Amino acid sequence: MITRECLSSVRSVRTDIPADHYEGCRPAAKDVRLAHYVNNTIKELDIRRDYYDETTWCFCYFDNRCNDATPTASSVGLLALCVFYAMTLL
């Protein structure tokens, strides 16, 4: 299973993110406090996050697609306005 998401949106939910965020792939960090004081008999909840054999985090630099990046709609609108202006000059 592959999930693509900005790091800032999963940082509050996942505790197994590796400390090294440079570009590349790394195995998930072990969280020793995960499900430490939990006594739950429902198997489907996966509170210990051991459903998958291994978890690998891959980081890449696409800052233009995450967080506070400028939306592409404004760029497309500006391009359309420039094309319309150029057509009226001809």
Task: Report on this structure.
This protein is α+β, with helices and mostly antiparallel strands and 90 residues long. The protein has a two-stranded antiparallel sheet with strand order 1-2. The mean pLDDT is 76. The chain is built from 2 helices and 2 strands. The protein is 24% helix and 9% strand. It is elongated, with a radius of gyration of 22 Å.
Quick one: overall form? elongated
Q: Averaged pLDDT, please?
A: 76
Unreliable spans: none
State the distance separating the first and last CA atoms: 53 Å
* Helix amount: 10-25%
What's the total count of β strands?
Answer: 2
Strand content: 5-15%
Order of helices and strands: HEEH
The tally of helices reads 2
Largest sheet: 2 strands, antiparallel
Structural class: alpha+beta
- Specify Rg, calculated over alpha carbons: 22 Å
Q: Biggest sheet, strands in spatial order?
A: 1-2
Instruction: Please tell me the total number of domains.
Output: 1
Helix-strand layout with pairing:
Elements: H1 7-10, E1 24-27, E2 56-59, H2 72-89
Antiparallel strand pairs: 1-2
Organism: Timema californicum
Protein name: (California timema) hypothetical protein
